[in-house]
Amino acid sequence: MNPGLTVRTITESDVPDWCRALHVGFLRRPTVSKEEVETRLGGIDLARTQGAFDAGSVSVNGVHGVNGVHGAGGAGGLNSADEADGAGGVNSANGAGGAGGLNSADGADGAGGEGRAEGRCVATFRSFAQQLTVVGGAVVPANAVSNVTVSPTHRRRGLLTRMMDTDLRLAKERGDAVATLVSAEYPIYGRYGFGPATWITEWEVDVARAGLDGRYTGPADGGRVDFATPETVRGLGPAFYERFRATRPGAVNRSERWWRMETGDLSNGAADEPWKEPFFAVYRGPDGTVDGLLSYEVNERWDGKLPDNTLVVRHLLAASPAAERALWHFVLSVDWISTVRSGHRAPDDVLPLLLGDPRAARVTTHADYLWLRPLDVPRLLQARTYAASAALVLDVRDPAGLAPGRYLLDATPAGATCAPTTRSPDLTLDVAELGALYLGDESVQRLVALGRVQEERAGAAATAEALLRTGRRPWCPDVF
After folding, report:
1. What's the predicted TM-score (pTM) here?
2. Domain 5-195, what architecture?
3. 201-368 is a CATH 3.40.470.10 domain
4. Which residue in 8, 16, 374, 399 has its CB near the most CB atoms, within 10 A?
5. Catalytic residues
């Protein structure tokens, strides 16, 4: 325990200083605005928002600005990263049911911590309610972790551990089946029982080499792609997204607030990163059903009166293969575009193989993305579907004591049961490895080869592989 350091849930009056600490942790300018704090207050649950305060550290005039009202300053806004110093994930402030932008503000003099008995905020942590789609399309209640930082002056003092332990314990008591986060740094979260359950790949496509038919004029299936206004997207997007996420393990829900911020109806409060309207397009199938939604931006560049523009995909979601192909064809056929950046996609996205020359798609990013921390093993394993029939006894080790136990999974394509058992284990594994395996992306046999899963019965790893792996890889399209 560190004398003078207090970790607790924050109050409304703490929010300006909490947001300043958030900025500091993410290497953004520590100045903040009233608009930022108002936006932040509209999107967080104070009862699930923690801060660490150092009684020996006070704010300094000039750090926050003059007279407490602090203008343009490092807000982070929509889809901003919310982890620093090994804490909490490339986590956007607008996840499902979550906050709206890395938004902060300092009010009158002293709002940044001057005069507070507890001193300055030096670490931040927030969670919110989330729904996670699992294999088969069911959803489970999740505890989404975001906005985690520890100031550089207070590293290695156990602040993250204190905040994480409190949050996970409360999530377990609430009945959440799993905790989620998107991690900015790989090595941090395994110690808390999180495992990487989805990965992302980003491609950069040389359009001239892509080998697509230059005479393409639109979908050949009778569907169509049309531009849409933000208002239209705000109206039709939520219902479409609910259909989409039911088809994609790893997807999380999007709140009304998310849609309002994504379409510019609600300010993200970020003076440095104000909302800029992207291009929106919608794919409708032959019967008029909205089966695809696209948003993109263009980085414009002309060289010697020749176009060298880059199209950057923000979101490309499809509820059918036809919609997915049509939207990629549309993106790759926009006039004056030399390069297309795909955004974060599932590693087995169709994009490269859709091209006449897949080598035109160069991988620029391949990394872990959504991390899962099981809290209720039976509920999780019963919620998903299985392609085969088998019984497995899993001995799950959990040093935190939140989900340890020996569980019998009896799975069939028609459903599964999972309950504690005293039978001998088939596999022994840490709860973090179960998190990595749960959505079907990781290989049990690979983890056995790495020594991270112990095969207690010959053939058990192959059986688990047949049960848990999925034909397509899970994908979380959102940062939170």
Report:
1. 0.88
2. 3-Layer(aba) Sandwich (3.40)
3. no
4. 16
5. 189, 480
